[in-house]
Amino acid sequence: MIVNGGHADSGERDRTALGRPAILSRRSFLAGSAVGLGAIGLGSCATTDGILLAEATRTYGPMPDEKFPIPAADISKLDPKFYRRTVRYETKEAAGTIVVDPANFYVYRIEGDGNATRYGANVGRDGFLWHGDAYVGRKSEWATWTPPKEMIRRQPEAAKYARGMPGGLDNPLGARTLHLYQNGAYTLYTIYASSEPDTIGSGITSGCVGLLSQDMIHLYARTPVKTKVVVLPA
């Protein structure tokens, strides 16, 4: 059962670590590959920070082939601890399970053999945190976003999208969405794509969980419908 810490409208546990700017309305609504070391052979050297930065630049680069081309993320606004990476993660959950750790702003995809892919995330703000087990009931690419009635009451400016905001770069759900269900019913919670690197590592949403677009597309491609999702207590 999902335990809601407030209104529901809408750890660093591992041991081994390896955009277009959104318009104001998007944020306000949400608030309601190893690098080769060949250069060493040429007599130069590479620092760990340099390696991570080069890898992150590729990981979070532009995606021009998308329906709505996605620009490179401004990784200068992203704490390196939130870069996508493979980590050690001990769990009894089966491979493929998604584990959300809101206290530490991470999402894990369990890979098996004690490993997981770890993504940096934004999560629900105070009063909107929840925890429990769910599953991916459906998946959407460039989904239409419809603000819940509770959000419209809190933020009347969202009323113009009461019949839905078409998919696109400014849509709060972004390029990919995993819709979370329990017992056949939609919980109104999602794991969605964000184009705002400076929100990763913060609590800003109405209970949903956001990954950078490049990370969300990576996770989405590996996540079938019915995948188990475990949201840990914050």
Automatic annotation (TrEMBL):
InterPro entries: LD-transpeptidase (IPR050979), LD_TPept_cat_dom (IPR005490), TAT_signal (IPR006311), TAT_signal_bac_arc (IPR019546), Transpep_catalytic_dom (IPR038063). The keyword Transferase applies. Pathway: Cell wall biogenesis; peptidoglycan biosynthesis. Pfam families: YkuD. Gene3D superfamilies: L,D-transpeptidase catalytic domain-like. Keywords: Cell shape, Cell wall biogenesis/degradation, Glycosyltransferase, Hydrolase, Peptidoglycan synthesis, Transferase. The keyword Cell wall biogenesis/degradation applies. Residues 96-232 form the L,D-TPase catalytic domain. Belongs to the YkuD family. PANTHER family: L,D-TRANSPEPTIDASE, L,D-TRANSPEPTIDASE ERFK_SRFK-RELATED. This is L,D-TPase catalytic domain-containing protein. It comes from Methylobacterium cerastii.
